[in-house]
Design a protein that fits this description.
Two copies of one chain form a homodimer.
Chain A (H helix, E strand, L loop, with lengths): L13 H14 L12 H8 L3 H13 L3 E4 L3 E4 L27 E2 L12 H12 L2 H5 L8 H15 L8 E4 L2 H12 L4 E6 L3 H9 L3 E8 L2 E2 L1 H6 L4 E4 L13 H12 L5 E5 L24 E6 L11 E4 L2 H11 L8 H12 L2 H25 L7 E5 L5 E6 L5 H10 L2 E2 L1 E2 L15 E5 L5 H14 L3
Parallel strand pairs in A: 3-14, 5-6, 5-8, 8-9, 9-10
Antiparallel strand pairs in A: 1-2, 4-11, 6-7, 10-11, 12-13, 13-16, 15-16
Helix pairs in contact in A: 1-3, 2-3, 4-12, 6-12, 13-15
């Protein structure tokens, strides 16, 4: 008869031990399909345990489908498909992660310095949010909680002169997620145009979502409409208020050309990516495409990644009024991706005026950083080799370097000196050959003031020979 | 000459007023393309304002592209495409939202009662998370922060006997989001099989993502493998530990059949949705498919929506080891969708043992609710018309009602009496005609103890005539 050694002292109850041993024998094939198991009484006697222990073990095995019972006949092994060999564990396997390499001085990161996050006020607002537990614990609308959508309406009115209603606003966990919602809304069969050069992640996301993505050249006014007409695209993804990486601000006439293009076909839409419009330093910001769009052709997107922190994953889009119904019909079944706690915290943060204060504080802070960086460049040993090209809007500018060194070599040398930089040429997805060379992008949002001088010194070194 | 009335007292600076008026005239066509604007000096004199005011207004208009200057010649109106008529605001327009209707007694909601959320401990952990601002403010890995991935590994080992490494774990803002990541990973060209009957949202998500979704019948052991073989599906989406809504637990032999099916073709995979496995009340839980999968064919998914709160949007998936590289190569560019604050808070919550305590507390709580509900049904006037069908696992059970009333009528009558219920037949996507009738799903996770008796009384009423 089947015999197992059970251990009174191994911390597991006897029935569990018995259950596990029988199960193991079924899995490893010791006990075969339809083989009869000992009767409870005989098995108990054989193992020196109580009948109830065997009964418990058998019950568990039955409930898990390893054995079956035939009334008045006994217990039998079920048909179990041969299990598979355990996956081999490789001691030296590579660990995959996208963890960001830490550089001493990083001009390629669009991150935000942790020390600039308004921790104490955020904590205060979070505390208030916690005082409304019932409200927060309700399942939220697909678009987000009302408090935040209302706060954003007010904010958009004040900052961007945009008149929108809360229902047009859809909250999401990051712009990347919102892009995928937009694709689901506008269609997987559409062709999406992105800017060339441009922020590479955008086309990566379109590709990952399995939709066709084309690259349309830009000029000093933004995406070229003549090229857009030539392309097969129905959807144009633009960053009119501050193009990355060139810094171009789309001219007002180009804006109207774009709206005109969209109005000419039912299937055409514009995605307006307004990611760092809060940080324009001179003049009044240009009107958002959304605010001059009379035909409901613009989906506006913005995020708090730049203005607050990438650790707070809250972005939002503004749908054209007539698209709201379509959104709820097609995608209203989704749960919102941002926790209600953080939504309410951000709503309070905006409503109480802290966001405005934070933006103003950050604008001054970035202005100082930008000015230090510019003057450091001007006063550097190699200032005659460097010229600043674009310093109007946003949190980066371009520096033209007079050198014969290739862009790849420049980036490599900088990295050796502890400085992470990127070059404009890296952002071209087509016409790469014609991409302007020796133009370095200086993202300064993540750089500390005290690091500016040593970073520029380190950059100087790269050009020495 | 162009003349405008400017107002010293309207709160806006004179240059902004002038800028706005000229801009309005350009947009409405009063000022035409290439029309010459007055010289700064003459204009200033005409309007009785300073030259610098006109200069400021012109500068702003130039920077926005509305006008251009020709050196030594003057200022001219740019080519602006005709703007579009403003979108008409309809006073009586319908407000779209997915806001959940509030019912007096809701047996159709899989929500969680706010009062059960461990607020004080969560706040405590949040506070600790805030003490590590630098760490939290770093951009997180596409898969999530290490602390949480490690905490989940330990949790999965203890609760599900799953041996996985942190890099296999991918955190995401809700299972719905993770499904879309899986589609991006496995392919938009694949056919996805979901259970019939089943949780409708799953197929909604596949459809919204533009992939083909087929419905495969289930029996008492779970999804039928014979039907799966007949289908064209490569990916099987299963809830083996507790099928919704039938409550079926997939038998161990069916589990092996499923793994066998997956192993027969390179493109085949299984998505194991383990959504409420924490709340099994009798016996030991069955081994997760993931833990008996030797060929790396199972993607395991779980969520904290049920076990903590739907307000905390944290879910995770466990990739097969050999898929980790593929994930990072294809989707590693994504930012994680859960805020670092909440990730760290949850990691601490798990690490400090609070999650285990919470689960135990909730398990007892739900057991009491379930027992009250069952005894209330048994003691009700109409107990002979009701029989409970499935009460083994998870947070719902089924009640068979002896009645001639149609399911639709039953739901309607219940709603009139303030009770929201759903019937099993609603969850059939194919073979709807053969769907069992008069089986009510009792989701009790959102119901208060004191509401059980009146809710059952109200249900009784529906069957009176």
């Amino acid at each position: 008869m089947l015999t197992y050694t059970l251990d009174n002292d191994n911390g597991k109850s006897l029935y569990i031990q018995l259950y596990e041993k029988i199960k193991a024998d079924i899995i490893n094939g010791e006990l075969k399909k339809d083989e009869r198991l000992p009767s409870k009484r005989a098995f108990a006697k054989n193992l020196g345990i109580s009948v109830i222990t065997v009964e418990n073990a058998y019950s568990q095995l039955i409930s898990e489908g390893y054995i079956y019972s035939v009334p008045k006949s006994g217990y039998f092994v079920s048909a179990i498909y041969a299990p598979f060999p355990s996956e081999k564990k490789d001691g030296n396997k590579q660990i995959y992660s996208s963890t960001h390499k830490i550089y001493k001085y990083n001009f390629a990161s669009n991150g935000v310095r942790a020390s600039n996050f308004p921790f104490s006020v955020w904590k205060k607002m979070l505390k208030v949010a916690f005082e409304n537990p019932k409200e927060v614990m309700l399942p939220s609308d697909a678009g987000g909680i009302n408090e935040l959508r209302q706060a954003l309406c007010k904010h958009l009115k004040e900052y961007r002169n945009m008149s929108v209603s809360p229902e047009q606003i859809i909250i999401g966990a990051g712009t990347e997620y919102l892009y995928s919602l937009i694709i689901q809304l506008l269609g997987f069969d559409k062709v999406y145009a992105t800017e060339n050069p441009g922020y590479g992640k955008i086309s990566d996301i379109y590709s990952a979502n399995g939709v066709k993505c084309v690259f349309v050249d830009t000029d000093g006014d933004g995406m070229r409409t003549d090229r857009l007409y030539e392309s097969s695209a129905q959807i144009a993804h633009l960053s009119p208020s501050h193009h990355f990486p060139t810094g171009t601000v789309m001219s007002i006439s180009r804006r109207y050309e774009m709206l005109n293009w969209a109005s000419e076909d039912k299937s055409r839409y514009i995605i307006e990516d307004d990611y760092d419009s809060e940080f324009r330093f001179t003049g009044k910001p240009l009107p958002a495409l959304q605010s001059i769009d009379g035909e409901g052709k613009v989906i506006y997107i913005n995020t708090f990644t730049k203005s607050l922190s990438p650790a707070i994953r809250i972005s939002y889009m503004v749908l054209p009024e007539r698209m709201v119904e379509q959104f709820y019909k097609k995608l209203g079944f989704y749960s919102n991706t941002v926790s209600n706690f953080e939504q309410l915290t951000l709503a309070l943060f905006i409503d109480e005026g802290y966001f405005e204060k934070h933006i103003n504080r950050m604008r001054n802070y970035y202005k100082r950083i930008r000015n230090s960086l510019l003057s450091e460049i001007k006063n550097s040993r190699l200032s005659d080799k460097l010229s600043v090209l674009e310093e109007e809007a946003g949190l980066h500018f371009l520096v033209k370097v007079e050198t014969d060194i290739s862009d790849a070599e420049l980036v490599k040398r900088a990295e050796k000196n502890g400085v992470k930089i990127s070059c404009l040429s890296e952002y071209y997805r087509r016409n790469k050959k014609n991409a302007p060379k020796h133009i370095v992008i200086m993202n300064y949002s993540a750089i500390a003031k005290e690091d500016i001088a040593p970073a520029i010194k380190a950059l100087d070194k790269c050009l020495e020979d």
